């Protein structure tokens, strides 16, 4: 088996794709999936594999959108949690007069 550039891209893409099944966190999964999509697109260009190229060209923006949604939701939760804890702390910090 001759390992040319295109085949190396395909093997790397397949390895990343396989890794998406092993990760436990959605953020990591999306990042690895995006990398996998990029390498599969490169493989599709080099080997003129049109189905591979079309599939991963569609999946790439989908994974990017899902990654953005996860990051956005995480920030919103952190912001809401900070506001709630600040409100809770301020209610316990009132002056008491004896």
What does this structure look like?
The chain is mostly helical and 98 residues long. 81% of the residues lie in helices and 0% in strands. The protein is built from three helices and no strands. The protein has helices at 5-20, 26-46, 50-91. It is elongated and about 65 Å long. The N and C termini lie far apart (86 Å).
Distance between the termini: 86 Å
Counted by DSSP, the helix tally is: 3
- Name the overall outline: elongated
Percent of residues in helices comes to over 70%
One letter per element, helices H and strands E, the order comes to: HHH
The secondary-structure class comes to mainly alpha
Low-confidence stretches: none
Q: Got a strand count?
A: 0
Overall mean pLDDT stands at 87
Q: Main sheet?
A: none
Q: What share of the residues does DSSP label as strand, in percent?
A: under 5%
Q: What is the C-alpha radius of gyration, as a whole number of Å? A: 22 Å
